[in-house]
Write a structure and sequence with these properties.
Blueprint (H helix, E strand, L loop, with lengths): L24 E2 L6 H4 L4 E2 L13 E6 L6 E2 L3 E4 H4 L7 E4 L8 E6 L6 E7 L8 E9 L2 E9 L8 E4 L9 E9 L11 E8 L13 E2 L17 E2 L13 E6 L4 E6 L1
Antiparallel strand pairs: 1-13, 2-3, 3-4, 3-7, 5-6, 6-13, 7-12, 8-11, 8-13, 9-10, 9-12, 14-15, 16-17
Length: 259
């Protein structure tokens, strides 16, 4: 006894990931629950290119420290009133806007940010956006650009070489703006071009600092008078040398500590 039955197998389109080294551009072209569900737009969501070896996230921020803010969604040029009818982007669709937006790797992996397309759909006069790049929590890059376009066109923002080795980039309104206090504006972003990080060599550690702003000269021997600290963004080890200098006065001596 035999039995035969015809059946159909449907294979859906799979958004296969590419390597970060291929310098992909993340262009979001639709809204999805994957974006609005957690208010984070990741590579591979909303019609964008998936990246197999890093997870790039885009979200709104409420302050310059990069505090996560909601909501975020994809909107087209009609919603945002852009003269560029082909433009669409990720934005806070509420008229209140947001302080800024962040582009960040989910696990702290480094990447290169080449450029992105930006459009502001709320302001009616010139204002400035500041862009900051970070690696391991330390600022390593900074630049600015004018966010307002009187013709209501989007613009391509090209980053300099300082943004070639970062794990987070934030941009936010820093002067001007319809609110006057730079608390928020109507940012939107799309066509985010990333690539493999480019190491620019070893970055010098920050200047050494002392936690105490003043020191009592009459303290007991072996007392802690302050803490010396410094930061190295490359997480390298480094050595400072303590040098004692002596200065003699007419009736007493004083010593200084040079670092």
């Amino acid at each position: 006894m035999t039995y035969e039955e015809a059946f159909t197998i449907t294979i859906n389109n799979v958004n296969e990931g590419v390597l970060l080294s291929s310098s992909p551009t993340l262009t979001f072209s639709s809204n999805s629950i994957a974006i609005t569900g957690d208010n984070i737009a990741s590579d591979g969501e909303g019609g964008s290119q998936a990246i197999s070896d890093i997870d790039i996230q885009i979200f709104n921020i409420s302050d310059i420290n990069g505090t996560f803010a909601t909501p975020i969604s994809w909107k087209n040029s009609t919603f945002m009133g852009s003269s560029n009818t082909t433009y669409s982007g990720l934005t806070n669709e509420n008229n209140a806007g947001s302080k800024g937006m962040a582009i960040k790797s989910a696990d702290g992996s480094e990447f290169k940010l080449n450029q992105f397309e930006y459009y502001n759909w709320g302001d009616t006069s010139t204002f400035t956006n500041t862009i900051k790049g970070y690696r391991n929590g330390t600022e390593v890059a900074s630049t600015t650009f004018v966010g307002y376009d009187s013709s209501w066109n989007s613009q391509t923002v090209i980053l300099n070489s300082a943004f070639e080795n970062v794990d987070e980039v934030r941009f936010y309104i820093s002067s001007g703006g319809y609110k006057g206090d730079q608390s928020a504006t109507n940012h939107s972003i799309n066509s985010i071009k990333v690539g493999s990080p480019v190491s620019g060599g070893n970055t010098a550690p920050t200047n050494i600092t002392l936690s105490a702003s003043s020191i009592n000269e009459n303290v007991a021997a072996n007392s802690t008078i302050g803490t010396l600290s410094s930061t190295d963004v490359d997480s390298s080890s480094f050595t400072y040398t303590l040098v004692f200098l002596y200065c003699s006065h007419s009736n007493y001596g004083s010593r200084w500590l040079d670092v």
